Every structure is written in structure tokens, then in C-alpha cells.
């Protein structure tokens, strides 16, 4: 990307192509409404390019912003990114502290005046077990949410610190509390009730998961949402900082094409019912 | 005059001012009726149509570009698919175990590690197709069982969305027995047990053993080469839902505290209700769709499928095992 700046106007041209293509995809009306990302490979990217680890994470953050811009431009409503797993606390204290600092910076940066969140009208939500966050980070997180509270065009869920199992347990606990208070009867609990108590409550179902760097596991991410029938899982074999908007475009075209030309499961079920 | 009568009929009866058939008079009447300026209305309408028009053109351009992209995508996809299909056919030939456990054993012995628990998502194809319907599904399932036994894996989870295998467990048992006899010879058919965690039933390869015993007791009594769990959609979200209901009920009655419920407890309960998390999940369809597989049980499961493949074939099985052997697990680190 660094040498491409040598042509005057080249970057602007790329930018134009990108926005046009985003609009083209938007016109298909088959854009996934909720996309989840596991951004794997920042550290390996740094190692590969002889960088410091934090430079790798910076590159990853920039890559994320580029991808999200494209996604929101093409009409996606919700993006969920896996920033920090509860399991990541197992890393060395030095690294954990350092990652916390980094996350604090980045969350601040996103929600700042004129940045990504304001540009696209994004409401930032930090989901996960917040009780594990240090006080100063928590303050920053709450501030970011407050600033972007009234944005309504799109949502960005930052999972920090999060695991899918913890989310399910969190939902169960929430339901238990409400039943104990007498707000709901245990006989009335259904799948929707559980969904309404997940961190992703009220958001469209996850339709697409993108995981980079060729790892073929969910790694405790959005387990409840991703195991649903009809959710597409795309595993990309490149490191996250190398994942360009154009690779994302390809995936979006593939997704839209599939939705347009092959009957979905729901339609199949409807056909069966008619018979 | 006809125009006059026309106008009269069009003006709402509520306006009591006498009609003046001229442009200014008309303007006045309309102003009275709508309480807005006509020029303004006309102007706005113009702008609106203009915007709509340019918007439509823009939309049309994007749509055309989209179709263009679709065509390019369809063409590249076609070649890619054909290429993949040929590769799959060649691989299938190269890996063909020809019903022999020895060859499978040889393949597996090359691997560094094998999964302790293996899961496979199976789909039944439409009734009319070759290998479709229930017989096709049972045939696929028995193939997977034979490979699993040959590879020396002790636990197998077979998942199908509708639970067809559960409903036809006797046919399945006969099918597996038949296939195993083909692989290992009639004299030493390996023993197996089929578990249905949802109804808490366990079936053995012989008919008389069909009892609802607690699984631990019976499996130790009968030494089996493989233990097969049949799962379907109800073991996924529905089971978590049932658990939630029970816990909520207990909590309302004051027998269970919210603080006592944690990941460990839920894990314990779900392991008892559904089983353990598999190490490797094989999917024999063209693009991965977990189809409601128990969400709790895919936390760190290695997923494997082959793009554009739509058959339950041995090479997917062995390549899945290879991937598992090569994968590096570093939880959180």
C-alpha cells in the first residue's frame, strides 16, 4: 500500500472505485445485515514484516476501519468485532496491560469527533463481561458509548472482553433474575427470551462470519448466533492487516449472488409446507 | 361551459367563496383550501420529480453494474467449481480406501494426533436422487462409522437437523452392522453402541440389549469399539432453553441462586444432557452451515469441510483428520 501513493490521484481513484462498488452492492438489496469479524493475524503480520507488535496491531486497526467503512457504505446495519477474549487474560500481565491501553486508545479514536462513528452514524457498543475491565478502561468505554448513543444508522459491537459461553450464561442469569422478581413466568421462556437477554439483543441475526489467517475454529465467538442455520462462515487465508476492502467486496458479491440465485432454506421450508 | 362545471365539481364544497374562473382566482381558492402557496407547491413537486428521476438513473446504473459483476462472478465461479470438482474426483480416487480398515489405519498412523471425539453433520438428499432419502442417509452414516472405527476413534457424534437418524434408529443400527461386516468380515464385526442423549436411550448392536440403562453402567459392561451419539436440532438451542427454564424455575422457588450459575455449572449440565464437545467437526456439504449444531459444543472445535464437495467421501474424512493433526491450539495466547 505504501508505494501506491506515488501516483498522484491514485488513492482518490481507488477510493472512488470503492464507494461506487459499495453502492453497486447496496443496490442488490442482499447485503448481510449483521457481519461478525474475527481479526486474526496482527501479531504474525508484525513478525512477518519485522515490525513491533504494536505496529502490527495498528495495521490491524487501520484495516478494520477500511473494511467497516466499506461495509457501512454498502448498507450493512451491524458489525461485531472480536477485540479481546476473556481467555486473553491468560497472556502475560505486561501484554494484557498493554493491550488494554491500546484498546482504550482505539475506542477513544473511533468515537472521537469526525471519526468513523460520526462519519457513518455508528452507535458503538462494548459487549462482554465488563466487570473484568480495569476502572480507567471502563470509564473510556462508557464515555465512547455515551458520545455515540444517539447515532442510529448502524451499530458497531466491540467484544471486549467476551466469550460466547459467557454470553449464554449471562443471558440465563438475566432471565433467572427476572423470574425471581416475578417479571416473567418460567413457562413463558422461549428462544426469543434468551435472545433478548444476549448482548446482541434487538439486532438482526448474524448472517456472515469472516475469520482471517486460516484458523478453522470459532474460538468461543458468538456461539449461539453462529450455530444458527443459514449463517455463512467464510474463512480467509490471509492475515487480518492484509485483508483488503476488495477481498471483502468479493465476499459480499458472493453472498449477494448466493442469496439472489439459490433458494434459501426458509423458502424451501415454505415449499415443503405447501406440499 | 364544460370547463366551468368541471372546476365547480372539483373544488371541495367546504370553500364558500364564490368561484372566479381565472388563474388568480384559482390560485386564491387553492390557497384557501390548502393554506399554502401554489408556486411553492409546484416548485417542490418539480424538484421532487427531478430528484426522483436522477435517483432512478443512478439506481439503474448501479443495477446494471451489479448484473455485470454477477456475470463476471458467475463465470469465474463456474470454472472454479469445475476445477474443484475435478480435484475432488481425483482426490477421491487417490484416497479410496476400498472398504479396507488396514488402508485407513495406515493413513491414520501417519498423523501426529487424532481427535478423541469426532462429529459429523449429515444431510439427507431429496428422495428421488441417487443416494437420497433415508437409505442414502443411513448409508452415509454407516460409512462414517466404519472409517471412525478403522481410525481408532472411540466417540462419534452424528448430527442431522431433522433428527431422521434418531427416528429410524433400528434401520440405522442394521445399516451400520451391515457396513461393518463388509469392512471387518462377518466373524469379527466390531461392537458399537448408539446413544440418543435427548431421550436418554442406548442401543447396542444386538436387539436384546435395548434397554434404557444409564449410559456409564452399560458401556462398561459391554466393551464397544465406538460409541455413537445421535444429535439433532433439539439438542442445540432447545436444550439450552430447557435448562434455562429449569434454572429459572428453581431460582423463583429459591432453590438456586443466580450467583451459583456460572460457565462451569452450565457446562456440567449440558455435558450431561448432550455430551462432550467434539474435537473435530466434519461437514460434507459445499459451504459450511452449522445448521443449529449445539452452540455450547463448538467452542474450540476444529471445523473441516471441502469447498464444492457434496458427498460423504473418505478423503474429506482423512483430510479433516490431517488438518486436526496439524492445527495448533493456543487458547487465548
From TrEMBL, chain A:
It is an enzyme of class 2 (transferase). Its EC number is 2.5.1.-. Pfam families: Prenyltransf. It is found in: Endoplasmic reticulum membrane. Keywords: Endoplasmic reticulum, Magnesium, Membrane, Transferase. One of its GO terms (cellular component) is dehydrodolichyl diphosphate synthase complex. InterPro entries: UPP_synth-like, UPP_synth-like_CS, UPP_synth-like_sf. It is a peripheral membrane protein. One of its GO terms (molecular function) is ditrans,polycis-polyprenyl diphosphate synthase [(2E,6E)-farnesyl diphosphate specific] activity. It catalyses: n isopentenyl diphosphate + (2E,6E)-farnesyl diphosphate = a di-trans,poly-cis-polyprenyl diphosphate + n diphosphate. Gene3D superfamilies: Decaprenyl diphosphate synthase-like. Its cofactor is Mg(2+). Forms an active dehydrodolichyl diphosphate synthase complex with NUS1. Belongs to the UPP synthase family. With NUS1, forms the dehydrodolichyl diphosphate synthase (DDS) complex, an essential component of the dolichol monophosphate (Dol-P) biosynthetic machinery. Adds multiple copies of isopentenyl pyrophosphate (IPP) to farnesyl pyrophosphate (FPP) to produce dehydrodolichyl diphosphate (Dedol-PP), a precursor of dolichol which is utilized as a sugar carrier in protein glycosylation in the endoplasmic reticulum (ER). This is Alkyl transferase.
From TrEMBL, chain B:
It catalyses: n isopentenyl diphosphate + (2E,6E)-farnesyl diphosphate = a di-trans,poly-cis-polyprenyl diphosphate + n diphosphate. It is an enzyme of class 2 (transferase). The chain crosses the membrane at residues 60-79. SUPFAM superfamilies: Undecaprenyl diphosphate synthase. It is found in: Endoplasmic reticulum membrane. GO terms for cellular component: dehydrodolichyl diphosphate synthase complex; endoplasmic reticulum membrane. Keywords: Endoplasmic reticulum, Magnesium, Membrane, Transferase, Transmembrane, Transmembrane helix. Its cofactor is Mg(2+). This is ditrans,polycis-polyprenyl diphosphate synthase [(2E,6E)-farnesyldiphosphate specific].
Amino acid at each position: 500500500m505504501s508505494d501506491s501513493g506515488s501516483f498522484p490521484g491514485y488513492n482518490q481513484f481507488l477510493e472512488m472505485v470503492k464507494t461506487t462498488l459499495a453502492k453497486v452492492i447496496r443496490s442488490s438489496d442482499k447485503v448481510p445485515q449483521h457481519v461478525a469479524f474475527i481479526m486474526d493475524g496482527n501479531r504474525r503480520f508484525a513478525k512477518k514484516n519485522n515490525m513491533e507488535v504494536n505496529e502490527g496491531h495498528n495495521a490491524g486497526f487501520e484495516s478494520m476501519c477500511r473494511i467497516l467503512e466499506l461495509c457501512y457504505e454498502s448498507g450493512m446495519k451491524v458489525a461485531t468485532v472480536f477485540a479481546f477474549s476473556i481467555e486473553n487474560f491468560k497472556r502475560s500481565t505486561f501484554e494484557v496491560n498493554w493491550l488494554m491501553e491500546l484498546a482504550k486508545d482505539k475506542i477513544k479514536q473511533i468515537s472521537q469527533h469526525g471519526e468513523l462513528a460520526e462519519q457513518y452514524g455508528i452507535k458503538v457498543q462494548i459487549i462482554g463481561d465488563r466487570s473484568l475491565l480495569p476502572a480507567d478502561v471502563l470509564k473510556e468505554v462508557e464515555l465512547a458509548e455515551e458520545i455515540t448513543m444517539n447515532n442510529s444508522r448502524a451499530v458497531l459491537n466491540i467484544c471486549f472482553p467476551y466469550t460466547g459461553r459467557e454470553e449464554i450464561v449471562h443471558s440465563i442469569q438475566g432471565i433467572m433474575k427476572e423470574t425471581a422478581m416475578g417479571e416473567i413466568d418460567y413457562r413463558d421462556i422461549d428462544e426469543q427470551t434468551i435472545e433478548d437477554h444476549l448482548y446482541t439483543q434487538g439486532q438482526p441475526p448474524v448472517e456472515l462470519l469472516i475469520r482471517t489467517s486460516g484458523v478453522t475454529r470459532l474460538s468461543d465467538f458468538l456461539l449461539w448466533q453462529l450455530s444458527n442455520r443459514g449463517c455463512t462462515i467464510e474463512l480467509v487465508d490471509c492475515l487480518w492487516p492484509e485483508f483488503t476492502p476488495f477481498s471483502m467486496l468479493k465476499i459480499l458479491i458472493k453472498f449477494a449472488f448466493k442469496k439472489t440465485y439459490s433458494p434459501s432454506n426458509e423458502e424451501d421450508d415454505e415449499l415443503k409446507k405447501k406440499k | 361551459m364544460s370547463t366551468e362545471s368541471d372546476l365547480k365539481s372539483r373544488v371541495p364544497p367546504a370553500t364558500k367563496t364564490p368561484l372566479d374562473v381565472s388563474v388568480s382566482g384559482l390560485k386564491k381558492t387553492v390557497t384557501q383550501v390548502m393554506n399554502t402557496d401554489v408556486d411553492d407547491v409546484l416548485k417542490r413537486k418539480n424538484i421532487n420529480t427531478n430528484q426522483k428521476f436522477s435517483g432512478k438513473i443512478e439506481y439503474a446504473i448501479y443495477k446494471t453494474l451489479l448484473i455485470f459483476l454477477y456475470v463476471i462472478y458467475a463465470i469465474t465461479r463456474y470454472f472454479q467449481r469445475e476445477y474443484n470438482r475435478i480435484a475432488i474426483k481425483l482426490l477421491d480416487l487417490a484416497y479410496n480406501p476400498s472398504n479396507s480398515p488396514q488402508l485407513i489405519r495406515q493413513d491414520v498412523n501417519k498423523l501426529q494426533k487424532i481427535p478423541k471425539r469426532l462429529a459429523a453433520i449429515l444431510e439427507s438428499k431429496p428422495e428421488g436422487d441417487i443416494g437420497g432419502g433415508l437409505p442414502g442417509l443411513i448409508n452415509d452414516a454407516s460409512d462414517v462409522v466404519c472409517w471412525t472405527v478403522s481410525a481408532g476413534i472411540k466417540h462419534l457424534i452424528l448430527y442431522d437437523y431433522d433428527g431422521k437418524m434418531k427416528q429410524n434408529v433400528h434401520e440405522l443400527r442394521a445399516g451400520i452392522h451391515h457396513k461393518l461386516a463388509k469392512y471387518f468380515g462377518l466373524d469379527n464385526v466390531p461392537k458399537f453402541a448408539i446413544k440418543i442423549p435427548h431421550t436418554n436411550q442406548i442401543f447396542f448392536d444386538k436387539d436384546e440389549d435395548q434397554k434404557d440403562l444409564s449410559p456409564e453402567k452399560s458401556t462398561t459392561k459391554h466393551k464397544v469399539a465406538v460409541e455413537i451419539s445421535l444429535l439433532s436440532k433439539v439438542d442445540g438451542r432447545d436444550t439450552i432453553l430447557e435448562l434455562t427454564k429449569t434454572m429459572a424455575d428453581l431460582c423463583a422457588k429459591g432453590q438456586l441462586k443466580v450467583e451459583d450459575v456460572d460457565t462451569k455449572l452450565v457446562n456440567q449440565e449440558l455435558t450431561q444432557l448432550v455430551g462432550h464437545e467434539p474435537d473435530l467437526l466434519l461437514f460434507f456439504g459445499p459451504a459450511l452451515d452449522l445448521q443449529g449444531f449445539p452452540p455450547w459444543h463448538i467452542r474450540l472445535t476444529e471445523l473441516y469441510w471441502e469447498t464444492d464437495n457434496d458427498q460423504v467421501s473418505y478423503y474429506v474424512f482423512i483430510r479433516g483428520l490431517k488438518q486436526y493433526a496439524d492445527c495448533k491450539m493456543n487458547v487465548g495466547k
